[in-house]
Design a protein that fits this description.
Blueprint (H helix, E strand, L loop, with lengths): L18 H18 L20 E7 L8 E4 L5 E7 L5 E2 L2 E3 L8 E4 L3 E2 L2 E7 L5 E6 L8 E6 L1
């Protein structure tokens, strides 16, 4: 084996730069990345802007045997809420409608679509001023009614 050298066991890998400058560069990279992502504040330096709040209060209403499972609901005033309306009447159409003062022609606040069961629908309702509201199934307005107390 003339002309070839055996690998040296004493060979060292190339020296790395000192640790302190590498950490400094890493810190700068992290700071730049945080600034590029917004850094958690709005351009004015105030608290971050959050998306619109989703309802924190959920009411469940069941329609079965052409009746609601409850004739009285309650929510806090000025707080958005969600009604989960569960129509368990197979082949029977129902909806859930909230009115300001009483049965139609009172002002409609919110309602689901009229659909045959079984079906579950969600109704998002904006925060309402304190008062007592009326709800009903528009298909069965004499059998399926109730009050919504907003306090």
């Amino acid at each position: 084996m003339s002309g070839s050298r055996a690998p040296s066991a004493n060979r060292r890998p190339p020296a790395l730069p000192p640790l302190r400058p590498r950490l400094f560069l890493l810190g700068i990279a992290v700071a730049l990345l945080a600034a590029a992502c917004g850094g958690g504040t709005s351009p004015s330096g105030s608290a971050p802007i959050s998306p619109a709040a989703s309802p924190q209060v959920t009411l469940k209403v069941i329609a079965q045997s052409i009746r609601f499972n409850t004739n009285e609901l309650a929510v806090p005033a000025d707080t958005p809420f969600k009604v989960v309306f569960d129509n368990r009447d197979s082949g029977v159409p129902h909806d859930f409608a909230i009115y300001r003062k009483g049965p139609p022609p009172s002002d409609l606040v919110a309602k689901t679509k009229i659909e045959k069961g079984p079906v579950v629908q969600e109704l998002n309702v904006p925060g309402l001023p304190a008062r007592t509201y009326y709800y009903q199934c528009d298909v069965h307005p004499t059998q399926m009614t109730g009050t919504l107390k907003v306090t």
